Amino acid sequence: MMINDLNLFSTNEEIEEVASNELRYLLLPGLLGYIVNKNTKLERMEVVKKSQAYYLDFLKLCKLYQVCDFDLPKQPSASEEEERKSASAKPPRQEDFILMADRRKVKMERFKKQKETEVRLKELYDKVKEEHVDDEIKREYYMTLLTGWIHSSLEELDSIKDELPILEHMAKMRISGAKTPTEEKLVKPKSTFRPFILTKDALQKQVIGAGYPSLPTYSVEEWYDQQVEAGRLPRPGEKMPGMPEPGAEAREYERQDLEKEANIQDDDPETLQKAREWDDWRDDHRRGWGNRQNMG
């Protein structure tokens, strides 16, 4: 609100006209998008749409000032959105696979640029921390920081684009009265079954009997309810502080996959050396060799 009141940025000026110390304030919408997306108290649909709006504002502002060369995400019209929803229920077509391949190619290029930006940003950060910093160094640092956030915002918008159809589908199921798989688990009636121990023979039964101190006295569901009341575990549908976000592991695997492919394309010496060593090892160790004891 203070930045808007001061009118620091205008639609009729260029990036060269913005003072170096004011460049960092261009980041505000992107930071708001990142912070809002971490909110776990509001409905997820509301959080995602707010975060999407902030990221788009940030990218439009950077595009207006031509911070770097990138394409703004295309916002589908109402007719295109309806077509997307109707097509989501149909099996994938050949055109869909081509679009997926193009999207992956764009992601790889963006990932390579992001890695280059991070390296340069680290170099500049060490110089900016010095007591006397040249204005050109400071300006380059903020411009590089903006470029890195542009790449991150584009990635976040891609994730939001994938998440929105899932949230819309879940909202429709709630309206129609149908239960989502998570809700079906929540309303599952508690079993009145009392845990017991199976023994192999009568002798073992005498040792592990009803008076054995380790015999369970309540079910897993009852234990879970007890832990929830004690505050050690989250209630169904809630998230404990420090737990990873849904899909974080999948995104990390995708990031590692993209990094590996980028290294191979760039002829990274370490990656190529590992690949050669793996090929040499497979030449000398056939599949199925290893420990062949106790095989009859």
What does this structure look like?
With 296 residues, this protein is mainly α. Helix content is 60%, strand content 0%. The protein has helices at 2-6, 28-36, 44-64, 78-87, 94-128, 135-176, 181-186, 202-207, 220-229, 248-265, 269-284. Helix 5 runs antiparallel to helix 6 (135-176) and helix 5 (94-128) crosses helix 10. The chain is extended, with a radius of gyration of 28 Å. It starts with a helix and ends in a 12-residue tail after the last helix. The model has no long low-confidence stretch (mean pLDDT 77).
Overall average residue pLDDT: 77
Alpha carbon gap, first and last residue: 77 Å
The best one-word shape is extended
Unreliable spans are: none
Content of β-strand: under 5%
The gyration radius over C-alpha positions equals 28 Å
| Largest beta-sheet details | none
Order of helices and strands: HHHHHHHHHHH
User: Using DSSP, what is the number of strands?
Assistant: 0
Q: Helices and strands: which structural class?
A: mainly alpha
**What count of helical segments does DSSP give?**
11
Helix content: 55-70%
